[in-house]
Amino acid sequence: MSENVGIWIDHRKAIVVRISDKGAEMSLTISGVEKQLRRMGDSPMKGSFEPQKVPADNARTRAFTGQLNIYYDTVIASVSDVNFIHIYGPGIAKTELKKRLVKLGLGKKIKGIHTSDKMTNAQFTAIVRKVYIKK
């Protein structure tokens, strides 16, 4: 049996479960991305300099996108050597990851994208096993 992977991903963390002849192996990647940046200084802001203490929206978006790109690249590096990939997750992170995999020429390895809510590590491992291990 070749090595296959299931990835549960959102913008905060990715759980990668590798299934091989040796069994299941799980790894966790934390993104460190904070979607809503905070204001600097005292709150509530007072005075005429308040707008200077809030980053511009386009600067926030660039910072957020840059952090996500690093996060996705880390996840992709951990699964680039496998044969098949199933991607799970509750939001748009799973489709963003799929787009990056396709862009890098790894799209043929994707065998399914599934919407799923949060679950325990044991539950996710069981789902990935069920997909790849046929009885």
Can you put this structure into words, describing what you see?
There is one protein chain. By secondary structure, the chain is of the alpha/beta class. The protein has one domain (4-132): Nucleotidyltransferase, domain 5 (2-Layer Sandwich), CATH 3.30.420. The protein has three helices and five strands. The chain has helices at residues 57-79, 93-103, 121-132, and strands spanning 4-9, 13-20, 23-30, 84-89, 110-115. Strands 3-2-1-4-5 form a five-stranded mixed beta sheet, with helices on both faces. The longest helix is centred in the middle third of the chain and has 23 residues, at 57-79. It is globular and about 65 Å long.
Shape verdict? globular
Number of spatially distinct domains: 1
Task: Give the structural class.
Answer: alpha/beta
The major pleated sheet works out as:
5 strands, mixed
Q: What is the quaternary state of this protein?
A: single chain
Helix content: 25-40%
Distance between the termini: 13 Å
| CATH class membership | Alpha Beta
Ranges where pLDDT stays below 50 over 5 or more residues in a row are none
Counting DSSP E segments of at least 2 residues, the number of strands comes to: 5
Give the count of helical stretches: 3
| CATH architectural grouping | 2-Layer Sandwich
Rg computed from alpha carbons, rounded to a whole number of angstroms: 19 Å
CATH superfamily membership? eRF1 domain 2
Global mean pLDDT = 84
Q: Strand-residue fraction?
A: 25-35%
- Succession of helices and strands: EEEHEHEH
Q: According to CATH, what is the topology? A: Nucleotidyltransferase, domain 5
| Main sheet strand line-up | 3-2-1-4-5
